[in-house]
User: Fold these one by one.
Assistant:
Number 1:
Amino acid sequence: MRLISLLCFLFLTSISLVVFTQETNDHLDQNEGDSVVLERRKRYEATLKFIEEMRRRREKDPQGFADSIAQIKEKQKFHTASARIEEYRQSQNLNELVEIDISGARLVEIPDWIFEAKNLEILVLDNNRISVLPDRLNELSKLRRIYWRHNDLGNANVRISRLDSIEKIDLTGNDLLKLPKVHRLKGLEELVLEDNSFKKIPTWRARRLKDLKELDLSINPLEIDKRWYGLLDHIEILKLNKCHISDLHPSIYRMIELKELQIQVNDLQTIPDGISALEKLEKLSFYKNQLAVLPNDFFDLDMLKVIDFYYNQFEKIPPEIGNLKNIEILYLSFNRLYDIPGEINQLENLEELYIHHNRLSEIPLKLGELQKLKTFHFQHNYIPEFPSQILGMKNLVDLDISDTDIKSIPSGIIDLHLKNFYWRNLEINLADPDNRQTTQVLMKLMDQGTNVVPGISIVELFDD
């Protein structure tokens, strides 16, 4: 479709050029004008012929046409990569480079000239056929990150030398069933194994990476069953997103050093008891699952700072939420919430609260006691009137009340000094004289620099 759109653009451009030439012909020398018109007409006719040929091929063989376009794109990427690599090869400033990208060049090994880049920190090997990280990489003492994505390593004889300086390696999209011998990278702190074929977390080999802090196994067909997760008790960040996980075995809680756990876009309906064993957990995301209840010991995670429950099935939040005193950001949007407990006022460190796209008909009065709150979004709920408790939140800078049943906006909102105020799709007719006070409030907000969205017709209607 993009190619057809481009061709149509060229077609229309050619027509416009011909018309332009005809309109300006009187200002040109007659011979010169005829020459320009003739040349542009030829280009127009060639473009039209090309479009017709492409259309004919597409109608005759849609799959073949799509394959041809894909091949053309692949060739373009290869030529671009080849040109980039040639520019590197001839460069007199290799020693000044901190990043080199040799992706997409169909290479089977790392070129020798790379070892001249003594200040290199980042090496990108994506979309090649490289299966060896040679000993010579140790010559690049500042090299910290290797991106080795989409090299079809799953069927290759992968060899990784003992490299001392590497802190991160990304093996995304290599159809790996088992972990290569990355334990040779003694200083490795971050390992990305996204979009491969792992069916379980590779605890046995990964246990030897004693400096490993972050492990990303997203987009793998994982099963989290009873295994030796305690072997990875030194890992601090674990990402298991888009893995079709439907059950979470509590043995994963043996990873007691975890500070961040992401299990996003999966099929979880329950969280097993025992999660309180993750005493150091600060960030937790179950974004886009099917959760409706929380285990009792969840509220013992008193080190939590960020909770993300976007897109789940919660109807209410237990009052024990007040136990999580260190929470700074709370995402509860796109659920089925009809109630927020008053105990939320105990989250004295809360700075951002997102409860939009739920079924709420009221905001707890005690919410006004959250004096550190800076962002509050409760749009797409059934709130009938502007919550007066908001006017006491003196640190609030970002407020969204859109798509609620609020009919008027109090003048006290001016004293909040908001940076952003969203009020889309409220039933407030600014042309109605009865709403003149609301209009003046909105105008004052804009005058003091607040980004008022929408507010596009306020000045036009009431500029006196």
Note: Residues 30-60 form the longest helix (31 residues).
Number 2:
Amino acid sequence: MKMKYRLMLTYGLLVALSFIIVLGNLLIFRTMESDSSFVNYSGKLRATSYKMAQLSNVIINEKDKIIKDELEKSIQYFDSLLTSLYDGNPTLGMSKLTHKATIEKMEHIKTLWDTRYKIAYSSILKDEDTSSLRIINEEVGIYVDFIDKMVTSYSENARLKVTRSKSINGFISIITIVAAFLSFNFINNGIRKPFDLLMKNLKELSFADADLAKKIEAISNNEIGVMEGYFNELIYDSLTRVYNRRSGLSKLNRMFQYDDRRQFTISLCFIDINGLKQVNDVLGHKYGDELIVSSVDIIKNSIREHDFIIRLGGDEFLVVFNGINENTAETVWSRIVQAYDKINREEGRPYLISVSHGIVEYNNKQKSELDNLIKEADEKMYLEKRKIKEELKINVIR
């Protein structure tokens, strides 16, 4: 399975499990809100029962109309609250009862209310009946006890729901952790196998020098970032950060192997830095390296992104102009020479930057070999170098 599909599969699984946990928690929270509302309004039901009994005694003793109105409102409130607790009321945040034991107790409370206590209270309002008051005073405690038992039953059910939800949540969390661990191993193994093979091949590379081979040997399999640095050592020249001979010529060869039906043009510019040995001998290798880096950096800044430079060795480089002919490449080289001249005039270095070059053009209508093209560019460069030495007699040391 391709790595991107492995990542999609494992991340998709983790996202799905996370979504289940979040959704489960939201449902638990909603249920807890409903349970909390039920217990809260059951407490108000209990308090209203005592309040109605107290108001009934005041009415019998004082015959106060205001108290009668208050009792009537309390009866209506109790009646509506009892219905909300039984049938559910979204406005009050309560769902319909589903717990069988609580439903049975609630039905008993409703039956007592509809067939006994509601009638007794209504009788007190109309006739100020003392016998109805006696029933209420004697049985209000028993009735409230029924409400308490209902609340206790519901609370126990709510506690069990929370415990069950915690268990399910914990189980899914454990599955998520296990899935994350297995996903890590799944992906890690998918990377490790080709990575180990790559490490094996790198260690066997004949072109890696002794120091680089030791560094590669010491690399941990998980230090991919460090590996990138050593890949760069294999691909790029350490001083100038352009392609080294092996990787650069390999890239150029692949360009030459493109489908013959696709027309393309390449100009190869062979360059040689003049007087490098003299700078090294007279001024030291520090200035010699500076001369090389400066010469190459000017070229880097003057060519396009899809052009590139290869260090063939020492002071010899090959600039690959992709998609342009020899005349255009010469125009680019003229700008490079102008940049060299500006440094020579303005910076006052103890040496002059002087570079010989030779450019050849290739398109895939030709049948030239790459080696022959490089040799031809080298010969052009040599002619210019001999002119600089013999005719112009340029001395790079000031």
Note: The first helix runs from residue 3 to 62.
